[in-house]
TrEMBL record:
Residues 258-292 form a coiled coil. Involved in DNA recombination. InterPro entries: DNA_recombination_RmuC. Keywords: Coiled coil, DNA recombination. The keyword Signal does not apply. The keyword Kinase does not apply. It comes from the Bacteria. Belongs to the RmuC family. GO terms for biological process: DNA recombination. This is DNA recombination protein RmuC homolog.
Length: 332
């Protein structure tokens, strides 16, 4: 708009200069100058109006785009703020979990809670017991009530994690070797304790489970101490992680279901046998009733025959004519 105005102003100025340089001869020059100035003014007004209209449309479009961009930025800021809150909450949970795993008693309670939740989710209420005391006086964390064979299986959830944590934090090879020796000793001792306390011939199965609350711990033990894990299995002690215990509990639940179905089938067979006995008894009683009914029919027939004979005898008695009495003698 500014170049157009400058052009029109220059044209007006040029026209005024030309008219001023002409000889002064009358009002025709002034009139012509006024007409041209008026025409140029109209053109300038029209150009300014058109330019203002275009500028207004451009400003409106820019304002709409700015508002749309601001709205999208606000939405993205809201998403970022929600993500920030989630990250802060997750950080707090991680801190809490680290505090739990750093405390031995809290870590044991965490493993017990995890084990109990899995048992309650996968097995029926009558299929397991919590904090069960065995006949030798030992209290196991859980007892899975499987039928013989194999029998009830005791579960322990208090595996020592200090050696494993030291192994994960070992700064050099020497510290790592010392941590591996400590962890191997912890594994061997814990397996011996579980085998001695939780495997009771005649009361439990010939094996017990050690629940490891971490998949990473389970993987490290099998990768670094495979010999000890195999030795524990030979003694009937099996190390299970949450994933493997989940699968084992699924198999145990299927076994419990099969046992329950067999028990229900046996109960059904007993009920069918009782029903057959009752059916035979009913047949005998119906046969007796038929015999009594037949005898009753014979008795009724005999009664009818006797009644007919009595009726006939009565008729004969009525038909008998008695002789008339002799006349009395006349008085002499």
């Amino acid at each position: 708009m500014v170049p157009l105005a400058a052009t029109l102003a220059g044209a007006l100025l040029l026209g005024a200069i030309v008219l001023a340089l002409r000889p002064r001869g009358g009002g025709e020059g002034m009139l012509l100058l006024a007409e041209r100035m008026e025409a140029l003014s109209d053109r300038l007004d029209a150009a300014v109006a058109a330019q203002n209209e275009r500028l207004g449309r451009a400003l409106a479009e820019n304002a709409d785009r700015t508002q749309d961009s601001a709205r999208r930025i606000h939405e993205r800021l809201a998403v970022i703020d929600a993500a920030r809150r989630n990250i802060e909450a997750l950080g707090g949970q991680v801190t809490t979990l680290a505090a739990i795993l750093g405390n031995k008693q809290a870590r044991g309670a965490f493993g017990e809670v995890q084990l109990r939740d899995m048992l309650a989710d996968r097995l029926p209420a009558e299929g397991w017991a919590w904090q069960h005391t065995l006949e030798n006086g030992t209290r196991c964390d859980a007892l899975i009530r499987l039928p013989f064979p194999p029998g009830p299986i005791a579960v322990d959830s208090k595996f020592p994690l200090e050696g494993w944590q030291a192994l994960r934090r070992a700064p050099d090879d020497a510290a790592r070797a010392a941590a591996e020796r400590r962890l191997a000793a912890d594994i061997r001792k814990h397996v011996e304790d579980v085998a001695r306390k939780y495997i009771c011939p005649g009361e439990t199965a010939e094996g017990a489970l050690i629940f490891l609350p971490s998949e990473a711990l389970h993987a490290d033990l099998h990768a670094l101490f495979g010999t000890l894990v195999a030795e524990a299995a030979r003694r009937g002690v099996y190390l299970v992680s949450p994933g493997t215990l989940w699968a084992v509990l699924g198999a145990m639940r299927a076994l419990m279901r099969d046992v329950r179905l067999k028990a229900e089938a046996q109960q059904l067979r007993r009920e069918v046998a009782r029903l057959a006995e009752e059916t035979e008894r009913l047949d005998r009683r119906v046969a007796n009733l038929k015999r009594h009914f037949a005898e009753m029919q014979v008795d009724v027939q005999q009664i009818e025959i006797t009644a007919q004979r009595i009726t006939a005898a009565g008729a004969r008695i009525e038909a008998v004519e008695m002789d008339p009495a002799p006349p009395a003698r006349a008085a002499e």
